[in-house]
Amino acid sequence: MSVWADLRGQAHVVEQLRRAAAGEGLTHAWLFTGPPGSGRSTAAKAFAAALNCEVDDVLARGCGVCEGCREVLGETHPDVVFVRTEKVTITIDEAREMVAKAGDRPQAGRWRIIVVEDADRMAERTTNVLLKAIEEPTPRTVWMLCAPSPADVLVTIRSRCRPVGLRLPPVEDVAALLVERDGADPHLALEAARAAQSHIGIARRLVQDAAARERRSETVRLPLSLKTVSQAVALAEQLTRIATDEATSSNEERGAAERARLLATLGIREGDKLPPSLRAQVRQLEEDQKRRAKRSVTDSLDRTLTDLLSFYRDVLVIQLGNGVELVNSGLAAEVAEFAAGSTPEKTLARMDAINLTRQRITTTNVAPLLAVEAMAVGLI
């Protein structure tokens, strides 16, 4: 199967990257941008595989079956480094490590490739560490940065990269991918793709996790019972709880497994007293897990607010009467009744309040519950 198979609805991007992999317009730095779920990192990984594909015919590179392609797609290729963070930001030390790796010559493939999946999660000072390496790269090195939009990357970096703009694929294409790749039921896949608003990762989670589908259904119904300030406070607590529960359920099991692996590596059995010389390593793991948990809750709350936003998006669609398909088609009657009791101006104001809260929780240190409470009062 070709490395481009998962890039559904991105024919223009596939054509651009195919030509570059064949040597037409290949440059040393690329910036992949697009809405969350559009497949930025998937496109970068496919491109990296095509560049180090072992097929002799340059027009056929990206075969997906040679050892080079399989190693890149499996993230085990010695010349391709994937940088992603589960913390709030990429640190300056991590950026320096990237630069050091970028200076190495390729060992097995044609290119040394650095794929930075969270380029938008770097402070200006951190980004400046990469500037010289991207501006004057070593021979046979290619940088691939991924971010939601060009504005999320420092202009000095952006100006030195070739842009690759992705868009959200059609719902039908996402559903077809879930059926073919994950064996999902076609009806469930279509519902999940529509509920996820074509976000491939979220659609896959909704297909595979019944509890996630239930949490989302609970979220989008919350505005139907919102009438008073006390209900707004309760709604805020419920939204925060939904996000926290979702993040905690995935973090606890992973955290316990990481601790067990570390103790086994250090030769310590669970329950034994840690020697003073080893406590620093365990403490570092715990600190990393705390930072990851903080980002996990923030990301989960952002997804929850995105689900809430879809309710008001549907309300606005009905109020404007433009005939666009509803995201929450199962709530069509309730949404129509809600829309009849409001105006498009009020709906837009509510959507602005949700988006402002999303911005606050992802870019500032505001307490999530306080931010969501302020938002909920504005939704009444």
Task: Summarize it.
With 380 residues, the chain is α/β, with parallel strands linked by helices.
Task: Please provide a written account of the structure.
This protein is an alpha/beta fold and 380 residues long. It has 3 domains: 11-165, 3-Layer(aba) Sandwich (Rossmann fold), CATH 3.40.50.300; 171-208; 225-378, no CATH class. Helices cover 59% and strands 7% of the residues. It contains 15 helices and 5 strands. The protein has helices at residues 11-21, 40-51, 67-73, 92-102, 124-135, 155-158, 171-182, 186-195, 200-208, 210-221, 229-266, 276-320, 332-340, 344-363, 368-378; strands at residues 29-33, 80-83, 112-116, 141-147, 162-165. It has a 5-stranded parallel beta sheet, with helices on both faces. Helix 5 links the parallel strand 3 and strand 4. Helix 7 (171-182) crosses helix 9. The N and C termini lie far apart (51 Å). The mean pLDDT is 85.
